[in-house]
Design brief:
With about 425 residues, this protein is an alpha/beta fold. Among the domains are: about 1-20 and about 40-50, no CATH class; about 235-425, hypothetical protein PF0899 domain (hypothetical protein PF0899 fold, 2-Layer Sandwich), CATH 3.30.2320.10. The chain is built from 9 helices and 12 strands. The protein has helices at about 5-30, 35-75, 95-100, 100-110, 170, 240-245, 250-275, 300-315, 325-330, and strands spanning about 175, 180-190, 225-230, 230-240, 290-295, 320-325, 355, 355-360, 370-375, 380-390, 400-415, 420-425. The protein has a 6-stranded mixed β-sheet with strand order 5-12-9-6-8-7. Helix 1 packs antiparallel against helix 2. The radius of gyration is 38 Å and the shape is elongated. It starts with a helix and ends in a 5-residue tail after the last strand.
Length: about 425
Amino acid sequence: MKKSEQLALEMREKWDEIKDLRGKVVEEDRDYSQDEKDLIEKTLDEVGEIENQIELEKANESINNRIDELDAIFSKSQPEKKSKKRGRGDNGSLGQKFIDSAEWRDFMKSAAPGGRLAEKAKLSSPPVQVTDLLQKTLLTGSSDLSAGAFVVPEDTGIYESIGRYPLSLRNLISVRQTTSDTVEFVRQTAQVTQATAVPEANVTEYTGATGEVSGEKPEGAMTFERVAEVVKTLAVWIPATKRALADASQLRGLIDSELLEDLDEELENQLLNGSGVGENFTGLANTSGVLVQTYVTDIAATARKAITNLLINGRQVPTGYLFNPQDWEAYDLLKDSNGRYYWGGPMAQGPRTLWGVPVAQSFFQTQGTGWLGNWRKMVLWDREEGTISATDSHEDFFVRNLVAILAEMRAAMGVIRPSAFVEIDLTSGS
């Protein structure tokens, strides 16, 4: 078995471990524990490393295969070697021409009388002119009519895509499963606040007379509301010819990967910025009831004020900040009056935090605005995870040998406690 195939089996085993763990969490209808999250993160890193090794091994195997092919070609075309003792008049090698030259023979007569050189002799031979170094028919590798006919471009097996934005939001929020087209949850709108100190009763029947104490306890009250979120569909498709899919075996895999990655990007965009109109999610930026932190002094002070805002008004403990990468860069580059970086500078190590709270970045977060929140209060309900299907039944695709490849996912999302999030204004004067 090739090394690349062995690595592929190893990668598959690690991927199966992740799927088994996910199945267990889904079956038990719970969130991932921290140990499980750490294990998944570690395993994903290992899968990525193995994938890189596979690409390198495939490239090496491709080179070796090509060398073997050329070796077989040259072995068949190579003439049999004939043993022949060359004389001075033979058209021998460059070295033979050199030692047979008159200049070299005359030099050796004077430098080595009797044919022996002194043990510590230092030689400096005269220039020797050797003709016919450039043959009339020169073999070169630049022409297909010469040696270039044997030069075949190397197929490295490497495919380099444009790349996608790193995604982070799905790892912050709660992810659950649903088998329905609508999910509902109950949200408390008012809590019990009537508790007070109560004196001991001094009468059996309270009449309201002076000095009487009823000892009656206050009645508490709380209210609720039922919230419904509808499952929405995210989809994208691409046309391809059947011939292209048949002739380029890796093309179908690339198409599937591109479509699914595009769905993942749109999902993160919807979670943050969905308008709530039509089939769009109501993203966090358009959810009513979130807290707001205005800009104060500088971005560092503003971020710290947001923590207090969330603790007092939202009654929540933050689990993370979310910033646009350019805004997080502004935090990284903050300096004090002596030109020293606040956060440790370029050599700082360890997890990225701000005021002790972990920081995540999203390319879909609007620059100039950040978020602080208890991200467990945003829930994504998976109805159907990303799937791929193909058909030739679209319009006239059947008679044109075309295939429509479709990727889609169905999910619902909801911010179950809007006051668990603080929208942070990072721009002065806005």
